[in-house]
Amino acid sequence: MLVFIDESGDPGLKLDSGSTDYFIVxxxxxxxxxxxxxxxxxxQLLKRELGFKGEFEFxxxxxxxxxxxxxxxxxxxYDFFYFSIVINKAKLQGPGFKFKESFYKLLAVWFSRxxxxxxxxxxxxxxGAAVGNFAVSLEAICANGLMIRKVTPVLSEK
Length: 158
Known about the structure:
Radius of gyration: 17 Å
Largest sheet: 5 strands, mixed
Strand order of the largest sheet: 3-2-1-4-5
Order of helices and strands: EEHHEHHEHE
Shape: globular
Helix content: 25-40%
Number of helices: 5
Number of strands: 5
Strand content: 15-25%
């Protein structure tokens, strides 16, 4: 079983000075690693079909709507589930949110309250720049021996 987690936005609260308005964390889980590999291979094929190079990543805020639709259509038939937390940072209150560690700890607590089948998965693969803080917070909250590794989003060989 594989769980991928990635984030969008930043934990900063200086909303009028360049910080993003929202921070989003999304978890995508495959109960079968072969299904994850098949989905990844389909994504690699889609990149070639659309004329993108192998290292291209589908960042939805940077690609056209047609590419987003093509991506979602390409993966729609694979067996996975997802869970997202969207934080409107303008609504966060309290001095603790000025510290990245507190922000990530809160996220880890929220994720620990998600459906229980997520927590039975033993291998989590995290992507993104903020993974270090989030992984530390998850490990501190979870006592079930999760194996957490930071990876690049591509599973298949090039």
